[in-house]
């Protein structure tokens, strides 16, 4: 079953998705086969260059024209957050299946409108929380579901990067609320929120704080090829540099969360630890092929953290890849995401995580922001 894809966006996420469409059929046996039909972006020459590298058949500069095409089955949205809603709703009304990068929308109202549109249209929809597709994270889910760490007491997670530590880093779209909707909370924290829901369950209430430490940055038009500002023309940063929040889950577990891009030495330190009545699991994206597991059910004389090298064919997704011990990387999480989506379309089964998960994540984001503003505990259910 061929599924014609129209991908909107050609930079960081566009390249990650393009690579996934290109490689997935080479390693996974699936009824749904992607046809890389159209790559869309505003800069035609830049889009064409990426399209030629990855094997897209055509290029387009108007997403409006793309979503109306009768020969497109799936619209993939990999562009800034402020246009997710318009593209997704138009695509749903045109009967297209949709993959959308996170966060789903600028705010909860928009996210709910998108979810309503795809449900009314009865199309498949998936949100790009790709870290669920890291085999070690999927193994963590299996360990929890099988009761190996018992009743969950604590979930603690951090997503630490150093990307914005240099004050001369330009005022890109992710630092402008009117385009991104949120800063580190929405960009990095959304992944932590989704993993928490995936592994632990729904949030009951949150309380948070955030800060913008570097309040102005060089305007992009004043940046040289080296990335250094050429004069003093500055613009205001309108999102958070860092957000920290506490949470209670509906099952009684406690959670702590931190997302920042001002942590020198941390490249992409996306890590979580789950403590239960019988044991603990620990994951760190910078060592994504490993999962640490501690079990109170082990004999006391040999009790301790074991490091599981998650590369065996019995581990999630890895039967399609290399012999044991031959590690995989970040890009494979997108390949696994595309595989699951295309299996869902071909077999008419439920997709996960979908736009419902995107809405639930947006509820937590807005609850944290409201908590920060009003300095109180906020229940996502009150929004």
What does this structure look like?
The protein has helices at 12-27, 44-54, 63-68, 84-93, 108-121, 135-145, 177-180, 184-199, 330-347, 355-374; strands spanning 2-8, 33-40, 58-60, 74-77, 97-100, 125-127, 152-160, 203-211, 216-218, 234-236, 242-249, 254-260, 269-276, 279-284, 290-295, 306-309. The protein is an alpha/beta fold and 383 residues long. The protein folds into two domains: 2-130, Rossmann fold, CATH 3.40.50.720; 133-354 and 360-374, Dihydrodipicolinate Reductase, domain 2 (2-Layer Sandwich), CATH 3.30.360. Strands 8-11-12-7-13-14-15-16 form an eight-stranded mixed β-sheet. Strands 3-2-1-4-5-6 form a six-stranded parallel β-sheet, with helices on both faces. It has a two-stranded antiparallel ribbon with strand order 9-10. A hairpin with a 5-residue loop joins strand 14 (279-284) and strand 15. The protein is globular and about 65 Å long. It starts with a strand and ends in a 9-residue tail after the last helix.
